[in-house]
Amino acid sequence: MDCYTANWNPLGDSAFYRKYELYSMDWDLKEELRDCLVAAAPYGGPIALLRNPWRKEKAASVRPVLEIYSASGLPLASLLWKSGPVVSLGWSAEEELLCVQEDGVVLVYGLHGDFRRHFSMGNEVLQNRVLDARIFHTEFGSGVAILTGAHRFTLSANVGDLKLRRMPEVPGLQSAPSCWTTLCQDRAAHILLAVGPDLYLLDHAACSAVTPPGLAPGVSSFLQMAVSFTYRHLALFTDTGYIWMGTASLKEKLCEFNCNIRAPPKQMVWCSRPRSKERAVVVAWERRLMVVGDAPESIQFVLDEDSYLVPELDGVRIFSCSTHEFLHEVPVASEEIFKIASMAPGALLLEAQKEYEKESQKADEYLREIQELGQLTQAVQQCIEAAGHEHRPDMQKSLLRAASFGKCFLDRFPPDSFVRMCQDLRVLNAIRDYHIGIPLTYSQYKQLTIQVLLDRLVLRRLYPLAIQICEYLRLPEVQGVSRILAHWACYKVQQKDVSDEDVARAINQKLGDAPGVSYSDIAARAYGCGRTELAIKLLEYEPRSGEQVPLLLKMKRSKLALSKAIESGDTDLVFTVLLHLKNELNRGDFFMTLRNQPMALSLYRQFCKHQELETLKDLYNQDDNHQELGSFHIRASYAAEERIEGRVAALQTAADAFYKAKNEFAAKATEDQMRLLRLQRRLEDELGGHFVDLSLHDTVTTLVLGGHSKRAEQLARDFRIPDKRLWWLKLTALADLEDWEELEKFSKSKKSPIGYLPFVEICMKQHNKYEAKKYASRVGPEQKVKALLLVGDVAQAADVAIEHRNEAELTLVLSHCTGTADAATADKIQRARAQAQKK
């Protein structure tokens, strides 16, 4: 353990800091780091280098090269820079490289040097040029802050949803500030800048002067400032050599340190872990690295070559041309286990396990000591936690073996934390490998989450490793393997040296029917790469027509989209394609396409009936469908025409169409309707009232009700209304008028073709029993009983039924015998029945 703590450096009495090597960098840098613009992404992210010829004395004809490396120094991309001068580089939270040019244009590149997009920071920035820029991260995304040649600031808090904000002007600012940075407070981005001995805070509304509390006197300038990884703390380096540390709100001072160096540092970053009581700042000069905090002494390291600092959640990455190291505060669990002469439960358990491997009895003594203090559970937890913070696999194994050894002597220790730590360390060791180059710590891994880590592996095209991790952690397929395979397929379609058939087959063999995989998304990517035929082949594997059709329309394969929509049976989808086709094709081609698809044609006709009647007529004309064309003109005559002449003309067109369709019945009926309309118009002119648009029967009824019986009879003769129907119409109309005298005359005008029972029924319906009895006597024998029952003459109905010796009539009369009044009649019927049975 003494040897293990050899690289521990105390900072005051409460914390130790250690620096260990992550990778030995084998990258072949053609330039020194000091001659390059450098950007390294947090969370073990990639490193971007761009030699800056605009600041270095070299031939203008030499174009710079933008190079992207993994954290282990493996090359990921290299491209010749052909755009304008670059002021600053930075990585977004999605690991996209943002290149801020002097003209205010920001170019966005992928991890492998693929150009994604670009955007401008506004006309004011373009006119005044960019002096300096910062890429920062907030809870909303990644932002860009610009300092222009006019000494004004412009920023956007989220480049994914670009909203430019021009910050207020600093009064009297004639030159560039000596240093500045971005702060994130109250869910908004602010600018903190130093002008001589003064500090100014710019928010969205105003510029306000601020003063750090407890700042040492004599400061005439601030040379450097740094905000912590979480934007909660701020450090200021003054020209007097003092480093002030406090809260980012500038309301509370944490400490102040005199480093006795007045030269401005190259970099200054915070170095602290989550939930740590110790706050430290790392300051780098040309050949010196200093860690300062709330302690009278500092930790100093010698830098053998140009180095670059990358602030992390729980420490600082330091890389140079030859090495990549990590500096951080030693976690509490590791400190308690490994510090010299430690008697912590975890330290004793680790010793016990080592003695057990030596088959020494001291193992039992250590265990007894821990158990007597009741700290065995705590010891196991300490070893598990410390294993997570170790970078070397051999130390991880040693601590986990100790934890496993201690678990054997506990009855109810939950295994979840031990198993989970073993899984997490196996994942971390896999991604820390030199060929992968993502040196995440345990704290960073937990903050980043496994889903984001998988996304980053996919971004690096490390699909096999990502799938192995998903299978090892047993993640749900939709979140794990299927999602990664979908990303792999999207990358596969970009390989243009492989034929469409081979790519489609390979993707289908790999993906199959994996849950959560959308072949339409993969096909969309193929189409975006200019491989339309491959996209169509991939869509054949897409089971959801609703996903196939929109993409086929986008690819201008409308007829294929129509076939797919019809196969799906989804009428809404078919309508979508039809409307697209209608806008895309000329009318003739559109109609010809519909003729080959009967279902689509039928649906389009239904649509036209409600929306486009003229188009419907054109469809019928093109198909020579005279029957439907006639029906169309009939509907149109009533829907569009109010004048009788126009309506009759439309009906005449309909009649002609019916004749062409050889539907003589429909043609004759239409001609009769034309005659009726003309007659109704004449009746209105001569008699007044309303006749137009009445049916033939209603017209007759209206004439009768108006006292024009002669005209009604003439109308019946003209339109060959059968006598029975005419009698019914007149009977009903006269009864409604309660013109009983006219009704009686009508009944006697000739023998009724409908009999006289309807007269009885109609009179009773009008509650006129007196008139009904007049007609009951005239009803024929077969309906006599029913008529007498209608007028309430039960006794006479019984007599007639007995006379007819009809069992059905007897039963009917008997059903009407109710109460004592009809008792005699009921007895009479029963006797008649008995007599009939004897015979």
From TrEMBL:
Coiled-coil portions: 349-376
Domain Vps16 C-terminal per the UniProt entry, residue ranges: 517-835
Origin superkingdom: Eukaryota
Primary subcellular site in the record, as a coarse category: membrane
Gene Ontology molecular functions: actin binding
Protein's GO biological process: endosomal transport; intracellular protein transport; vacuole fusion, non-autophagic
One cellular-component annotation, GO: HOPS complex
This protein's record includes keyword Membrane: yes
Function summary: Plays a role in vesicle-mediated protein trafficking to lysosomal compartments including the endocytic membrane transport and autophagic pathways. Believed to act as a core component of the putative HOPS and CORVET endosomal tethering complexes.
Protein name: Vacuolar protein sorting-associated protein 16 homolog
Lineage: Eukaryota, Metazoa, Chordata, Craniata, Vertebrata
